[in-house]
Inverse folding.
């Protein structure tokens, strides 16, 4: 019943440091799947621009009810639907799961013709919202149910894990399944499976955990009974990632190999020759577009370094001195293939009492498969 | 038969200044709709990453022909198709036009819930490519036909004009029609119409002009007869923008109000309170990701200034000192509404013999309509 994430422009900074602390305290009372500290993003109320009303925003009276033209244009169902031809969506899993067929679009792929991670994440968000759309529970918000809106609640994501085994290519038809389940007493999990429509081969899987936040106070909330009544009939006990034993993500400090205010933390050589295989994000605090954030990144000690791979010139392969030319020139690529590249991240914002964590992350990278580039 | 534009990652810089000059010379021999100087982008050959072959890239023998798994996955038609259920595409206009139904997705809209210009441009590109896809003419490139590939030719866009009267909103179902026609002797035009599926109301229209470039020499090419034979049966004489009398876009120089290497040329106040209404781009030269480019921008002298609107404190309304608060506070908004905001642009790259033009542009901005923001 939740969107995967709020678009970045919806994330606003909190000007109230106290609410953060209250949040932290509240977090200790809500345990989500063993996570005692809570992550949240803050999609704040958006400023409504003044302007001239037009036919597209005027009020229309239909059957005695005053509904906006916007509602007519969006046409959000008030009752459960089992099929939507425009979204190519279908209710599955005995009436509670959702499947959508999508074609990978030309602008969703990179130079190697495979979908970018951003495109895949976008499609996860889209299918999650369309799932709620089909359920008849969607209110006039970003994935919130009618009961949530009545209680002034919004969804916030606390953890997200995406594993991509094969990236779909331009023009490929994929099926995305998504469903929800319980997570602790007050949370919800949402899983996804991305498959080739032609072969059924699984391209990617993802899991996420969500809780509710009061839109005004920015405090986390228990799940109200009326919301539980809405969403719990949709819960199923099924895991997209079978072995989900989340390792603790260490908190990086100023000793991290790379601290970059431009948020670019992976060397170009790796980005050109590798594709992201796994990403785990643990959200811990809200941040917004007026915040000054800093990203820290460290190559994993358990990755290449432990395997004792050192360049003959003494340059460690475990970091930013790593150049693909050196690797290819020294014939180390074969060994290199056996070891995934792994990185740990921290995104932090300058707070009144020092830096405050926004999100911790981990990524795993695998070497790209060869593919025919665009003929351009 | 052409894609709207090449994704930015496909655009590479030319290291050969001579080829630019040859291009310029060639341009004088090809006149496209009265444009004597030619614009082009340069999607260069992409580097093919080395790596391990996987099942997804191995060769498979089907019916005695050696075809790649990639081809199977993309499933590009070799014959004309009239309907594609996955793309929700349909051949129209007596068999030569293309219509696609799309739902505006959650990540394609801004905080005001309306589609961003970028999303609309993406959908224009997508429908153009799907039009070629349906035609059975699409080769293994970015919109190039089989005949073009045999002649080592690619499409380059020379002019693009998009007019958005209403921005579609999140969840809205829109129909995009696109078709192609002749443009001079060697060029092609492509038009689009974006409509509400429910009401038929036209949201946006767009026109563009395309020519062919030799992929190796980077010189513009006449249209080979075999390519003309492929695409001319698809040409129709129909204009999405009826009154298309292109005004000359002046070339900006160092006297431009704003010169910004960050490519951000519109003040935040305008971006927050206005939406782009028209954009015209005239491409004149290739540029790429290793080029250092500079953007110049000037508010239009024929816009607000001519109407004599001056702020009481003496601040000109025609430029970057303009703040929406001032306008709203001084009650000038009513007058302001009557006048569109207009800007002229120049994007240039540092060349060996001075700055060289990449693209000239013009935009018109209209005040945003009020809309209910996301409940988040």
């Amino acid at each position: 019943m939740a969107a995967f994430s709020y678009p970045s422009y919806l994330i606003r900074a909190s000007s109230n440091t106290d609410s953060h602390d209250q949040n932290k305290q509240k977090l200790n009372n809500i345990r989500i799947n063993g996570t005692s500290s809570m992550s949240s993003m803050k999609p704040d109320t958006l400023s409504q621009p003044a302007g001239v009303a037009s036919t597209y925003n005027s009020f229309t009276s239909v059957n005695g009810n005053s509904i906006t033209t916007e509602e007519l244009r969006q046409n959000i169902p008030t009752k459960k639907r089992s099929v939507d031809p425009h979204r190519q969506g279908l209710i599955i899993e005995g009436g509670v799961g959702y499947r959508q067929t999508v074609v990978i679009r030309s602008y969703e792929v990179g130079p190697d013709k495979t979908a970018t991670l951003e495109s895949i994440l976008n499609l996860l968000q889209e299918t999650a919202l369309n799932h709620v759309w089909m359920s008849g529970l969607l209110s006039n918000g970003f994935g919130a149910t009618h009961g949530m809106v009545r209680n002034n609640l919004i969804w916030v994501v606390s953890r997200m894990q995406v594993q991509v085994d094969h990236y779909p290519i331009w023009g490929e038809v994929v099926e995305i399944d998504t469903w929800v389940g319980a997570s602790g007493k007050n949370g919800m999990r949402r899983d996804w499976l991305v498959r080739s429509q032609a072969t059924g081969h699984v391209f990617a899987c993802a899991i996420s955990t969500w809780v509710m936040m009061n839109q005004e106070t920015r405090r986390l909330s228990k799940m109200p009974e009326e919301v539980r009544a809405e969403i719990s009939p949709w819960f199923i006990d099924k895991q997209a990632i079978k072995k989900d034993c989340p390792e603790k993500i260490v908190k990086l400090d100023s000793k991290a190999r790379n601290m970059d205010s431009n948020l670019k933390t992976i060397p170009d050589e790796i980005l050109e020759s590798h594709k992201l295989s796994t990403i785990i994000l643990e959200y811990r605090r809200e941040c917004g577009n007026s915040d000054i954030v800093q990203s820290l990144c460290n190559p994993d000690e358990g990755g290449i370094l432990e395997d004792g791979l050192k360049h003959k010139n003494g340059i460690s392969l475990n970091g930013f001195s790593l150049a693909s030319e050196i690797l290819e020139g020294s014939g180390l690529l074969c060994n290199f293939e056996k070891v995934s590249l792994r990185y740990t991240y921290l995104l932090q914002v300058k707070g009144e009492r020092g830096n405050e964590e926004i999100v911790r992350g981990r990524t795993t990278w695998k070497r790209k498969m060869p593919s025919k580039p665009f003929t351009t």
User: Anything to note?
Assistant: Residues 117-135 of chain A form the longest helix (19 residues). The first strand of chain A starts at residue 59 and ends at 62.
